[in-house]
Write a structure and sequence with these properties.
With about 210 residues, the chain is α+β, with helices and mostly antiparallel strands. It has one domain: Chloramphenicol Acetyltransferase (2-Layer Sandwich), CATH 3.30.559.10. Helix content is about 25%, strand content about 30%. It is built from four helices and ten strands. The strands form two sheets. Strands 2, 5, 6, 7, 8, 9 and 10 form a seven-stranded mixed beta sheet that branches. Helix 2 packs across helix 4. It starts with a strand and ends with a helix.
Length: about 210
């Protein structure tokens, strides 16, 4: 894992970052409907975790974090996601190492999901990488709006993704996806580009 510090004084985003991290601390969320018709023959949850991580790794705006070392950009990210205990009706947050090769990632996911899906702990898997981001899914709920409130000092810059229940529309299978970001590092343009890239990866997933 590499973490490249940003030279804020010479950073083209300096004015925007300082405004939204100091003066008007601002996060925002948006919900989009993704066309996941091409994923019908695949396991939806691990496929979407991989696709989201691949897209995050394409865009430095979604890998920017404020750590004890300072403000910087991780060279790559790994997904931290939830698994559901069907018997106890609770969830656990776990993580898996990302791989550009989907089959390799799927094996990692299957091992972790099988091991921890019966846990009653919130975080049963130790060693969560600092270069990880949050993904969850609410497969029981088809939503048009979703907002997560992070009550910290306003310095949590990494994205949060929440998927809902998919639905059928005009012969297509659609998936609601909530994207939450910090305005200090990510503007509407970047979210729009992220969704465009993600949809393209979904369309060409095989």
């Amino acid at each position: 894992m590499a973490f490249r510090l940003i030279d804020i004084e010479n950073w083209e985003r300096k004015e925007f970052y300082e405004h939204f991290i100091n003066q008007v601390v601002c996060t925002y969320s948006v919900v989009v409907n993704l066309d996941i018709t091409n994923l019908k023959n695949h396991r939806l949850y691990p496929a979407m975790i991989w696709l989201l991580t691949k897209t995050v790794n394409d865009m430095p705006e979604f890998r920017t974090s404020l750590t004890s070392e300072g403000l910087g950009i991780y060279d790559e990210m790994h997904p931290m996601y939830t698994v559901f205990n069907k018997e106890k009706k609770n969830f656990s947050g776990i993580w898996s190492y990302f791989s550009e090769d989907y089959d390799t990632f799927l094996k990692n996911y299957e091992i972790d999901a099988e091991k921890y899906s019966t846990s009653t702990r919130y975080a049963p898997k130790d060693g969560t990488p600092s270069n990880s981001f949050n993904i969850s899914m609410v497969p029981w709920l088809e939503f048009a709006g979703f907002n997560i409130n992070v009550f910290d000092d306003g310095h949590f810059l990494l994205p949060i993704f929440t998927m809902g229940k998919y639905f059928e529309r005009d012969g297509k299978r659609m998936l609601p996806l909530a994207i939450q970001v910090h305005h200090a590092v990510c503007d509407g343009y970047h979210v729009g580009l992220f969704v465009e890239k993600l949809q393209n990866y979904i369309d060409h997933f095989c």
